[in-house]
Write a structure and sequence with these properties.
Blueprint lengths: L14 H23 L3 H19 L6 H8 L19 H9 L7 H4 L15 H15 L4 H4 L1 H7 L25 H38 L6 H10 L2 E2 L1 H8 L3 H13 L3 E3 L9 E3 H6 L21 H21 L11
Antiparallel strand pairs: 1-3, 2-3
Helix pairs in contact: 1-9, 2-3, 2-9, 9-10, 9-14, 10-14, 11-12
Length: about 350
């Protein structure tokens, strides 16, 4: 006789589970509130989609790290990193998911997912995050592909758990596909995963916002900024850069791009991570630290940049440059215009 499938919305309630649910809801709520009003929501969404996509690939058994997707999407062969296996290198999968995430309409989840929708009468009175886990489990059992994991951010918005799509909130747990008798560990594990993803997403959002202020301050104080503002706006969306990529995107020589990157590195806005490569590679500082290319500073952390009124003109100029980069990437796609052979 087959083991009955547990309903994740009807757990055995314990203080541990209630606390985990509260932490997950709070962590997601804080991230959602910040992203909804942030000036850097667009570049954050772009980076967060790379993070979420990595989580989904790993849930399908792929041996891949987040930095590998970051490098691929920035068209950079990173030092010390193997090439992504060809069976994982579908050039259309991630852009297709990103387009679906940026759709303006938040469709009801039943219209999105081709799964059984027989629900108990008190369904809407059960905790929303547990309902999202149950729907994801049903979807994962019906579809063995990557799709159920990638559907989670849109599902959370459809269920009004979030006001905006948060692409980093992808969960991937193959146990959701199994007929486990004990749902408690599955629920706790996935609530912790959502909590951690949201907390990390908030840290990275803060880092991008700090970089925006640092960029505006650097441009404001520069004697001859030249293309510096365009480079720093590009960095928001493409946090891994090379002279070749910058030269092509900003229509300058590779030599000029190298000097521009070195100038930004001297300002502390990005760091060089080239290793022993013949060509130079740079990263946004927070990404370089997170992925282990640069050691985390010891001692008291650097004071975050402060907003001051006299930066407003520089911030306005920087935001316009970011809008132009955003439009360019939406129109062309970074892969469409960059040669990746020796980026």
């Amino acid at each position: 006789m087959p083991t009955p499938l547990p309903d994740l919305t009807e757990p055995v309630w314990t203080a541990k589970l209630a606390s985990a649910l509260e932490r997950a809801a709070g962590s997601i709520g804080r991230l959602d509130a910040r992203v909804s009003v942030s000036s850097v929501a667009s570049p954050w969404q772009r980076r967060a989609s790379w993070t979420g996509y990595t989580t989904a690939l790993r849930a399908q058994g792929a041996e891949i790290d987040e930095i590998d997707i970051f490098g691929r999407e920035c068209t950079i062969n990173l030092p010390g990193r193997p090439r992504i296996p060809t069976n994982l290198n579908d050039p259309d999968a991630l852009p297709s998911w990103q387009r679906n995430l940026t759709g303006s309409d938040a469709r009801y989840w039943r219209d999105e997912l081709a799964i059984a929708t027989d629900l108990p009468e008190d369904w809407n009175r059960r905790p929303a995050l547990l309902r999202a886990l149950e729907i994801t489990a049903r979807h994962a059992r019906a579809d063995g592909s990557i799709a159920p994991w990638l559907a989670v951010p849109a599902l959370l918005r459809s269920m009004r758990i979030t006001q905006t799509v948060l692409p980093c909130l992808v969960i991937g747990d193959r146990a959701l596909r199994l007929s486990s008798r004990d749902a408690q560990p599955i629920i706790l594990r996935n609530l912790r995963s959502l909590t951690d993803h949201a907390a990390e997403g908030l840290v990275r959002l803060q880092a991008i916002e700090d970089d925006r202020l640092r960029a505006a301050e650097a441009v404001s104080n520069a004697h001859r900024p030249g293309k510096l503002i365009k480079l720093l706006a590009l960095l928001q969306f493409v946090p891994v850069l090379s002279p070749r990529l910058v030269g092509q995107q900003l229509s300058i020589t590779i030599s000029g791009a190298g000097k521009l990157l070195a100038r930004a590195a001297d300002m502390g806005i990005l760091v060089e991570v080239s290793g022993r490569q013949a060509w130079r590679t740079y990263m946004a500082r927070d990404i370089a630290i997170a992925f282990g290319f640069v050691k985390r500073p010891i001692g008291r952390p650097l004071a975050p940049p402060r907003y001051v009124a006299n930066l407003e003109p520089a911030l306005a100029d920087f935001d316009r440059e970011m809008d132009e980069v955003d439009s360019m990437l939406a129109r062309l796609g970074i892969d469409a215009s960059v040669d990746t052979a020796n980026a």
